Amino acid sequence: MFIVFEGIDGVGKSSHIRGVANFLLERGIQHICTSEFGNLPLGKSVRNLMMNYDMTGEEEILLINLIRSYHIRNVLIPSIQANHWILMDRFIESTWAYQHGGKQVPYNIVKKLTDSIKIPKPDLTILLDGDNHRSVAKDKFDKESKDFFNRVKAVYKDRFDQENWITYNTNIGYKAVQSMIREYLAENILCC
Ligand SMILES: Nc1ncnc2c1ncn2[C@@H]1O[C@H](COP(=O)(O)OP(=O)(O)O)[C@@H](O)[C@H]1O
Ligand SMILES: Cc1cn([C@H]2C[C@H](O)[C@@H](COP(=O)(O)OP(=O)(O)O)O2)c(=O)[nH]c1=O
Predict the structure, then answer these.
(1) Disulfide engineering: 113 pairs with which of 22, 61, 99, 153, CB 3.0-4.6 Å?
(2) Which domains does the chain have, with CATH numbers?
(3) Where is the signal peptide (predicted)?
(4) How are strands ordered across the β-sheet holding 165-169?
């Protein structure tokens, strides 16, 4: 089971991934928590470059492609082959939301650049919708304007796929949302 958590900065993705990981642990289900920027030393270097250089959206996609391909080969494919659950913080939809929505790279260019990598399709995407709950800015995107995040949110909304996405409004509080995610997994995935 390959689950991706998406949403704007500070909406609660890492907190909910930790919650779901504990839920799986209690049930003895083998899983990994991962992200392109957080898991491997190369990802941390890429994140550093992206956050500390003023880049165009196109340049950001080229940089993200490097770690995306490397992370697929070294983390995602081996975990999928081992039949482990994968809880991933952001994936390709972040590129659509931030580089196409936020930074306004035209659709055809995003498509061309992102199509250069073969992407494993997530079984489920959990889109967290709500405010940035972080009080202090963590990176360059945290400091972007309200308009920027409205465009990011609009692209997430446009790309919402009824087939295998679910969404929750995080403004109702962490506990309520975490219970709904657990309930969804218990009823729709663990039961089968
Ligand atoms: N629903 C919520 N309401 C208020 N604060 C929250 C909520 N979910 C998470 N938080 C807090 O918001 C901050 C950012 O959460 P985090 O999980 O790091 O977000 P992300 O991974 O999306 O950037 C953390 O301090 C977390 O404890
Ligand atoms: C994966 C990805 C992330 N990003 C941005 C979103 C975040 O602002 C930033 C860092 O990602 P991340 O470390 O996941 O930040 P956060 O915990 O705040 O959600 O990188 C893109 O712009 N495009 C992408 O494809």
Answers:
(1) 61
(2) 2-190 (3.40.50.300)
(3) none
(4) 31-34, 85-89, 2-6, 124-129, 165-169
